[in-house]
Specification:
CATH architecture: Beta Barrel
Shape: globular
Order of helices and strands: HHEEEEEEHEEHEHHEEH
């Protein structure tokens, strides 16, 4: 009887284990070939940043979905996990941002610079302050996402080409880590846990549909809009006075 019960449990165990696994992948797909990547210069692009993994991912639109063009090691960022809240806290921002042509600086003192648009509408509603938060070169950070000069040149070229080819704004989603249930559980005691829960729907939306999430701000919270809707203007409409590059 005991052996039968044991065999029965062994058959059930896989079903229990697999039922707890998310139905969406938790790691990015392999990037496109180098040859295809070259051909996609000028296609709409999308950026994801993961602090804990020190990774910036550049996606390009192929057909109706965005495919990974390349993944870059972040050379440096500062302040650890959590959102930027005030000028001088040396924190690198987290949240949903966007970039227009006015936020690009090809002659930055950090080689090339892309201003992410902090503070956005969410940040302003929280009273967060700061300016000149960039993705740039030179591998030095006091609140920015610093890349090697080689990496930022590649990222910059694709962002600029997309904007000059008709993309209105390039979405930049910045996460503390890959927003899986297991990672959120691992950080459940953080003071930022409730904020990070607001970011997870945007992350899941992209993983499931391979289309940048449409995010707006309602009642001081990030809200995921219906699939296919335009990116919420309340997030993309960052104060241009604060998006000056350096």
């Amino acid at each position: 009887m005991g052996k039968i019960a044991l065999l029965f449990a062994m058959f059930l165990l896989p079903a229990v284990v697999f039922a707890s696994v998310p139905t969406y992948p938790v790691t990015p797909l392999a990037p496109v070939s180098k040859e295809l990547k070259k051909q996609l210069l000028g296609t709409p692009v999308y950026i994801q940043i993961f602090k804990e993994e020190r990774t910036l991912e550049l996606y390009g639109k192929i057909g109706n979905e965005y495919r990974l063009l390349d993944s870059y090691r972040i050379c440096n960022f500062s302040g650890g996990l959590g959102p930027k809240r005030r000028q001088g806290d040396f924190k690198s921002p987290e949240g949903f941002y966007s970039v227009g042509l006015s936020q690009l600086k090809p002659d930055s003192r950090f080689y090339r610079a892309i201003n992410v648009g902090f503070p956005n509408e969410f940040d302003r509603q929280q009273g967060y302050e700061g300016k000149y938060l960039m993705i740039h070169g030179s591998c030095v950070s006091v609140g920015c996402y610093a890349m090697t000069d080689t990496y930022i040149e590649d990222i910059y070229n694709y962002v600029e080409a997309a904007l000059r080819n008709g993309q209105t704004r390039v979405g930049v989603s910045i996460y503390p880590f890959r927003m899986t249930d297991s990672n959120l559980q691992r950080h459940r005691n953080s003071v930022y846990a409730s904020f990070w829960q607001q970011l997870q729907p945007g992350y899941r939306e992209f993983v499931q549909h391979r289309v940048p999430p449409a995010i707006s701000v309602t009642g001081g919270r990030y809200v995921l809009n219906e699939p296919g809707s335009l990116l919420g203007s309340s997030v993309t409409g960052s104060a241009l006075a604060l998006t000056e590059t350096k």
